[in-house]
Amino acid sequence: MQKRPTSRDVARLAGVSQSTVSFVYTGRDGVAPATRERVLQAASELNYRPNLAARAMRTQRTGRLAVVFPVSAPNPLSMLRGATLAAEKAGYVLEILSLPDNRDERAERVEELIDGGQYEGFLSFTPLPQRILNLSREAGPVVLWASAFDDEMHATGVFTEAQPIVVMMERLVELGHRRFLHITGPLDFPSAVARRDAYLATVERLGLDSIAVIEGDWTSEVGLEVVRSLPEKTAPFALIAPNDSVAIGAMRAARLRGWSMPGDMSVTGWDDIGTSAFLVPSLTSVVQDRALVGEHSMRRLIAAVRGEEEPEKPGEVHRVVWRESIGAPSA
């Protein structure tokens, strides 16, 4: 059986003392960032995992962190993936805990977990009462809200950034479009409101003709029905859809009407789902790097647990993927 790597092996590969390896994994001050990175890289190469039980006895730290979210929440896999990788890289065990949907019951359960002393920190994807949120180990385990979703698991925070709508509309104007139509998502979603507001502000700023702003949902059916019901004289125009599913329904309706794309109807989506690149025409869409947001949130938690400086905000969370569904309007 292959011998399990030890902190001595990590120290030898990283070119540091064994105590430095220990300081890195217990969050002690005084370790230079370059040295810390070298230790973590060596640990990764050796597949080293610290002895959490021994660490807890020596330092009163468990080496365990938790991510919490409601039971009924759609599983935010991308964010969890980013958070998990960040925790593992820093030498922590991460546990995913599904808690009650009711906010008060969820808060009560988190307080029980805090009192249990099993975790050094908690990352919540949904809001918690202010009395629980705590970014200092002096008051017990660190509890951080990632500001990613509200109590209904509607996207909030960085996920409501609507600048890509502006970027796509400006590009369509450069291609010759002056007439636009926007289907929104349900307006109880902060992201749908933000994209609608960005659309209206861009229409006003650039002096564009807005055919309509139509509240819809996130389904292909709404895109199909809206485009199918438009007067024939509507084309050519550009449709700003709230997501790829709505855009796909709109594209089908345009095809059934005999409208060319992008000549009669240019269309943009959001989310860049797997099939969007393979449509005819392929769909211009927006990528949200949720894994990056999950990673950054976990790095913030770890920094607070260790008493370190908060990491810099992530760079490009949203990115427009330009494809064939937008182009110059027909003459």
From TrEMBL:
Q: Which GO terms describe its molecular function?
A: DNA-binding transcription factor activity; transcription cis-regulatory region binding
What CDD domains does this protein's entry cite?
Answer: HTH_LacI
Presence of keyword S-adenosyl-L-methionine = no
Location of the HTH lacI-type domain: 5-59
Family matches, as InterPro entries: HTH_LacI (IPR000843), LacI/GalR-like_sensor (IPR046335), Lambda_DNA-bd_dom_sf (IPR010982), Peripla_BP_I (IPR028082)
Q: Would I find Transcription regulation among this entry's keywords?
A: yes
Q: Which UniProt keywords apply?
A: DNA-binding, Repressor, Transcription, Transcription regulation
Domain of life (superkingdom): Bacteria
Gene3D superfamilies cross-referenced by the UniProt entry: 3.40.50.2300, lambda repressor-like DNA-binding domains
PANTHER family per record: HTH-TYPE TRANSCRIPTIONAL REPRESSOR PURR-RELATED (PTHR30146:SF148), LACI-RELATED TRANSCRIPTIONAL REPRESSOR (PTHR30146)
Q: What is this protein called?
A: DNA-binding LacI/PurR family transcriptional regulator
What organism does the record attribute this protein to?
Microbacterium natoriense
Organism lineage: Bacteria, Bacillati, Actinomycetota, Actinomycetes, Micrococcales
